[in-house]
Write a structure and sequence with these properties.
Two copies of one chain form a homodimer. Chain A is of the alpha/beta class. The longest helix of chain A has 18 residues. Chain A starts with a strand and ends with a helix.
Chain lengths: 574, 574
């Protein structure tokens, strides 16, 4: 008679791959129809249930309990199978070939003193503790474990950052450091492209495609998926960008991420613009924009495929030095902000999207994000961009493309604000529009600049001029008069916005964190592995030096005891 | 002594440009320092205030009142200036050169019986009524007026659509029809590119850039900024796409919009894919994706500039016919849905973004939009895409790139669902990953397909295979075994997703709305103009036939009386 028998081992720990192998071995015993070996968490119980392996006893197991369940032709076979468990566990060939397994990270560090890395893949609840230990031993950490809290992540990254160490992860699936793959990594040819990714399979797909395209990589550095969240602030990504900037073998940099927080996007792009190498950026789901490629080094891609293609193309171009830039005039100390006064809704919308790549928190009457919306339309706040053609501004008056009065009044208001550095405006020519906008705007621009100069300020006016040579307003004459009045005039909105963004982006605080030692990318990898044994054997297969730690949950997985131990350790360290 | 004097004319109507001109004329009278002529809405009072032109009397004016305010050197000059107002108004040279101005749209239609168009730019509160009248007279409507409710927009567009007429707008700033610009429009060379835009200055910038690049346009059709909202559903944009598809002179189509609603995006792209011409798409702020250009005709741009450049480039390529496609196997009647089972988070994320271009409402555990989030992770709903590497799935078990158990269980669940047509999976090779995923997945794929065939279903399995030739798993053998099992295997996620999307996108209901008469694009423009007189003269300057209507607000602007009149008219028509 078919029967399902279960053994529960309270508080027992094996790494999850060993359990997977035990399950396979059990299911291959003659007379065993099905076997399940899993920790007693809800998702696993669900799988056992679907496979007819969940008894009432297994249903009652705790998350820390190991459930071993077999479904057999008869009770005798079931009992015999369960009796085999210990033999199977002890007879399994260890995947690492170490004679002696140290019991702690510290002991492992003594065995492999030149190890600069610790790979950590223990279950989530223990991961932060192990990572802290590794950081104290001055190891750079590749933290594969998931289910680590964001509070722990922030604390660990701050600790690592201030010690000049990298903490990649948590939930960091992949990295390739100096030809050695950590966690999941493809065997990719060596070449001139360095990558930073807040996305594991993103890095894998792009590195694999780079290899397929015949090129190769220097390093692919994972940061963990939450690194670019507003809370974490991209600490690891910024460190990695710095490393690749300094790495002489990296000619082109790739930066990939799932959609990052807007503030982090701005910071990262600002940082990437200071790099003197081309940077290909792919933020999945982020509204990609093209920017003026002559004025800086950022190239936005629209897919993982295109990211790889662009990077490979740019390798040849990378040798060409960027042209020297004219030093623009300097703003006064308090002049920090942009005021955009648009008559065209689409031009305003596109400008908002482009400028977000340079400036954090642009307030606007057309912003989608609540925190960016301008509540009092009459008063600008910090960076502000207005679509003056919106309904609220046009009740009872002509559209601003016809009637400059409202815009001129606002222009004077903004020009008088000592915190304003640049005023950005569009002028749209053509049938139906104002017959001669320069006649009204040029004198206003000229007067505002003169007033500002008298007040020891340099007010910059940037105009996007939309029109053709056949438009009734005479575009050449419009442009000439606006330029004579002192405005910078561009025909392309993209070019105008990229210029404004570059002029106003905040200078990054340099040296906030000490630089990470470039040697970690240049020396052959030596690492301590804590957690999944298969990761140690994978490193060994790649001829990296590795010591695997025979790690067990502290206090046998008993959470109360663990927290007492943790507090004792903290007290000791303080 | 300097003095400000105000005259209030209750319920008086002049179009806003005439008021602007009156203001200019008054301010040019010697002794007048400043003048303001505006309707009594709050925004205007603010401007008068800033200019020292707001008296207590003006402050008390109603929105329907005309405020005439002059600031003069003395009272006598002020009185004299105000006494001039009627002279200035009657002596102004009419910008249209008509001898007789009809008082209604109907009378204008009799004067210009071949007019296919009505241009409407009356104040928002009257605009829907005038548009309705024009539609009843079988005119296509260019509705420049803003401040029209979305309810009115929906009603008007449905009425127009079912009559085979276009209603462009409300708040439609621009269109170019057969060389004639409506509203605001640049003088652009004639050429092979046709445009549809839910954005006025977007159309202007792109048409101007096309002209600057030496090419030209057939027509540029505006839809109004709200056309691509979920409520309106892109009625006008779909009609315009249909027109340009049928227009023999249009070789390449451009589609521009401010960020559209997701459902409308999907519908529009589906419609654009049925067009046998290249379509360049720029949805500002929409996460652009590249898609497989061999499999269809959509080209995503990342800026207004790039939109123009792509369109011009594609003109030469447009002549090349697209390759014949293999007819894929047919799904059973109920097979409609995709189930995506991903081990890689980034691949899942990118797939979600790409597939949203084809399929509406994909449910997922990694969706950002609330309505897309999958509440019960155990059960898929309609189109569902899962990232099985998310924390919720990995507590107490190895990552799905190592352990196929969870994915195999879910695969079987999805494969048994008679509504499922395609299962999409990623397989990521490399160090650290499962040593031989095909050994577990290929038999499952083969078995599931066989079971489905027995149940008279065609289950399609699409696999994205990420890896290199040097990976330990042997990519060629993995691919071979997966293909033998009946899976379609792609190395590029973009290509795999584009394939899946095309297979599953719903067939558009053809002929829901009658086609709009192509003649409106081919005949010389003849139009009735209601509202801003300057638009009539602009049409006349472009040698279009135009009749301007001497329109006044019904019932002298009295809103109570107006609503009674409106109800009487409705009763009459029913």
């Amino acid at each position: 008679m078919r029967t399902t028998k279960v053994e529960i081992r309270r508080g027992t720990y094996y790494d999850s791959i060993i359990l997977m192998q035990l399950q396979l071995s059990l299911s291959q015993i003659p007379g065993v129809n099905n076997a399940g070996v899993m920790m007693g968490v809800a998702a696993n119980k669900e799988i056992l249930k679907q496979n007819g392996l969940l008894t009432a006893e297994a249903e009652a197991a705790f998350p820390d309990d190991l459930i071993i369940s077999v479904e057999c032709d008869d009770t005798t076979t079931a009992d015999a199978a369960l009796a085999e468990v210990d033999n199977l566990l002890s007879s399994r060939k260890s995947t690492s070939e170490q004679d002696y397994l140290p019991k702690s990270v510290e002991a492992a560090a003594q065995m492999l003193p030149n190890a600069k890395w610790a790979l950590i893949s223990v279950p989530g609840q223990y991961a932060a503790g192990v990572a802290r230990e590794a950081l104290r031993l001055q190891k750079n950490v590749f933290l594969y474990s998931d289910n680590v809290s964001i509070e722990d992540e922030i604390a660990l990254k701050h600790e690592a950052g201030h010690s000049g160490l990298l903490l990649m992860g948590p939930d960091c699936g992949t990295s390739i450091v100096n030809n050695t793959g950590f966690g999941f990594a493809n065997q990719v040819r060596r070449g001139p492209i360095g990558l930073v990714g807040a996305s594991g399979t993103g890095l894998q797909q792009v590195t694999a495609r780079i290899d397929q395209l015949g090129s190769g990589i220097t390093h692919a550095l994972g940061t963990g998926g939450r690194d670019l969240s507003a809370e974490v602030g991209g600490i690891t990504a910024l460190q990695c960008l710095g490393l690749l900037q300094r790495d002489p073998e990296t000619q082109v940099i790739v930066l990939i991420s799932k959609p990052p927080a807007q503030t982090v996007t701005t910071t990262l792009l600002q940082s990437a613009r200071t790099v003197d190498k081309p940077v290909v950026v792919y933020f999945i789901g982020y509204p990609a924009v093209t920017t003026d490629e002559n004025s800086h080094n950022i190239h936005f891609a629209r897919s993982l495929d295109e990211t790889a293609e662009l990077a490979v193309q740019l390798v040849t171009a990378a040798a060409t030095p960027s042209p020297a830039k004219n030093k623009p005039v300097r703003f006064a100390k308090d002049q920090r902000y942009l005021r955009g006064l648009f008559s065209g809704g689409t031009l305003a919308q596109e400008s908002l999207f482009i400028l977000q790549n340079y400036l954090p928190n642009i307030h606007s009457n057309i912003a989608h994000e609540k925190e960016q919306q301008l509540n009092d339309l009459k008063r600008s706040r910090e960076h502000t961009l207005l679509d003056l053609g919106e309904d609220a501004f046009t009740v009872g008056r002509p559209h601003p493309m016809l009637d400059n009065n409202l815009r001129l009044a606002r222009f004077q208001q903004e020009a008088a604000d000592p915190e304003v550095a640049i005023i950005l405006m569009d002028i749209v020519l053509g049938h139906g529009a104002h017959p001669d906008p320069a006649s009204e705007l040029a004198p206003a621009i000229s007067a505002a600049r003169t007033r500002a100069q008298k007040a020891k300020r340099e007010l910059e006016i940037v105009v996007v001029l939309v029109g053709t040579e056949d438009d009734p307003q005479n575009i050449a004459s419009q442009m000439e008069r606006l330029r004579t009045a002192g405005a910078r005039v561009e025909k392309s909105n993209t070019v105008a916005c990229a210029y404004v963004g570059q002029r106003l982006q905040r200078q990054l605080q340099p040296g906030k964190l000490p630089p990470v030692d470039l040697a970690i990318l240049q020396e052959p990898v030596a690492a301590i592995n804590v957690g999944l044994e298969s990761f140690a054997s994978s490193l060994a297969n790649q001829t990296a030096a590795v010591v695997h730690v025979d790690w067990r949950p502290p206090a046998g997985g008993n959470e109360k005891l663990m927290s007492i131990l943790e507090r004792m350790k903290k007290a000791q360290n303080n």
